[in-house]
Amino acid sequence: MSVRIEVLSGLGDKAPAAILVEAEGRRLLLDAGGALHPGQSMAWSDGLDVDAVLISHDHIDHIGGVSALPAELPLYCTAEVAMSLPRGREWRALPARGQCRIRGIPVTTGQAGHSLGGIWMHLGVDGGVFYSGDACLESLLFPFDDPPPARVALLDASYGLYDTPQVQCRETIAQRLTEPRVLPVPVSGRALEMALWLDEQTEWLGVTWNLDDACRESLEALLTLPRSLRRGGHDAAIRRLLDASRADSPMLWLVEDRDDDPEDWPEHRLLHTGYLTPRRQRQRTAGEVDWQRWNVHLRLAHMRTMVNRLRAARATPLFTAEVRDVSESLKRPRSLALSEEGSDAVG
Ligand SMILES: [Zn+2]
């Protein structure tokens, strides 16, 4: 059974995700990404002809293009992700982890370790097609489920060749927490795990912190969701964190990312930990804001881990300008990956 894969958007740049997979005469669209910043092209949706769309998670570069699709096009996502759809958009359930058939094509899903309710997808065609969506193997809070083998791996390579372990990122951020800071974060993603981490760090450092209503509501919502959507052992800490009384004017703020400018926070300095839009890059270059990454995507060693686990014959790095370098690196003999994995490398 032949399969045709066309990355409509997301190959060669950190661009909106839109991948067409055609198999058994059916055409599925994996993700319907919107622009991450003004001026980013949305041409992928022009003249689109597909049978259904599957959404991996609720970040704008994966879901923001839904409004450009015909309202009658069948859309599949998890219940958590559905909360971020345009009002009134009809949708059908994808399992948070499990199996289903969409237009006759077997689809397996699992938790991707990146965001609340965010999944990877595996299509049971032609030896398997795996699409990671955005994925991370280092989350303190979100589990990553092992996918079934796949001949083709479409991998989140948002970080390109970057390979710094999360523990080092956290250490660097911790060093910056003793002066007034605002940390803007996506509420369904790193906000939740950063809240847990900040609670520990600030107690240790003896500094005050607070979280805005959006982050608080997201943590409260997390406790109402099935336990299988989060790693074990955090519920008591989340409850403690939510019940604690907090300073109105704390040293540190964890806030929903609303594209704030330095002028919005005259008493604090912005510390970004995620993707920097061109505008933010300019602000960083001008010394107006700080940035230190908190890993929420696959770093290079973990892309190798994925290729090995999937036993993939072909890997396509997505969402990066470093396609060639990453591809070459994933093809090289993987002594590191072998010692990490203890399993056979696949060419
Ligand atoms: Zn994402």
TrEMBL record:
| Stretches assigned to coiled coil | none
Metallo-beta-lactamase domain boundaries = 15-190
Question: Its Gene Ontology molecular function terms?
Answer: hydrolase activity
SMART domains attached to this UniProt entry: Lactamase_B
Q: Which UniProt keywords apply?
A: Hydrolase
What InterPro entries has UniProt attached to this entry?
Metallo-B-lactamas, RibonucZ/Hydroxyglut_hydro
Q: Which Gene3D superfamilies does the protein's record reference? A: Ribonuclease Z/Hydroxyacylglutathione hydrolase-like
Name the UniProt record assigns to this protein: MBL fold metallo-hydrolase
Q: List the top taxonomic levels of the source.
A: Bacteria, Pseudomonadati, Pseudomonadota, Gammaproteobacteria, Oceanospirillales
